[in-house]
Amino acid sequence: MRLKKILLHSNITPDMETDSSLLTSEMEQLKQEELYHQLLMQAMGEVQHQNPDSRVIRPEPGMCVKTLSITEKQKVFVNICQSPAVPPPPHLSKEELLELLQSDDPTAYRVPMSLGEPHTELDNNSQGCTAYDVVINNEFFQKCQKDPLFLQFVIAVSFEGLENKYSVELSREWKALKNRKFLGSVSEQNIRTESKPSIQEISPSDSHTALSEAKRPEFCLLVEPPVGDPQYLIAEVQLPGVSSSRSLVLDLGEDRLVLTARPSLFHLDCYFPLTIEPETSVAQYNTSTQVLTVTMTVVPS
User: Fold this and answer.
1) Does residue 3 surpass a pLDDT of 90?
2) What is the distance between the alpha carbons of residues 205 and 124, in angstroms, rounded to a whole number?
3) Average pLDDT over every residue of 281-285
4) How far apart are CA 261 and CA 166, in angstroms?
5) Do 249 and 4 touch, CB atoms closer than 8 A?
6) What is the DSSP string of 248-266?
7) What CA–CA distance (Å, rounded) separates 81 from 60?
8) Fewest Cβ atoms closer than 10 Å to its Cβ: which of 114, 118, 158, 204?
9) pTM assigned to the model
């Protein structure tokens, strides 16, 4: 199960007390409509939230790989770029890599990388094509340049990452361009300043301790729009006694939400009837009502 950490924002209203008994269904509906409108504006690029855990970098060209889009039967170029701002993966020897590739779960080894947006370019025959920019650590890139096995591995991981993020299907037959390190122009990318695991493992002892000491909070799930195909799944979690979002740890998977309020105050682990997209999900904690609202984009069925 892949889980993604979600940055929590606090909505602090000083010197204000709210009586929950005064909240009417009309006010709740207005709040949902306002949140839904905000999400639509964000999806359209009209609202941008600054992420304090990210920074803008300009990567250096490394190598350019040519492959083929299986569905469209068109040329695709992947620019493997390098930057010291991207953290290196854990040390792995060639022998360990061979064992990993022969194991049942070769994806257990994670390579930190930044996947850029697709951009349209022209190939040597002045034909239109699609290019992607993948940024990895510069020292790890040099290691891949010296060892063909590591090079094949990082290209395979890059292809898999692009397929998962942009819903494309790339041929595993590729060719590295000899006289070209980059197709197009190098663009800036927004990357995380610290590496965050895409999978959070909880040991049985830790899980047992958290469940025994923490309470399961009251929560409800709403869909927007309420009629027709759902576009957003909204979780509202009541957390009485939680004064700040800094004590909350929230992880999202494609069909799972895991929330912990430290220290051992609340613990929630629930699954969804719908498939969501963790990358575009947002969360906000209102300190006056002590309600956490998690708005998740539903993947069309």
Assistant:
1) no
2) 59
3) 88
4) 33
5) no
6) EEEEE-SSEEEEEETTTTE
7) 6
8) 204
9) 0.49
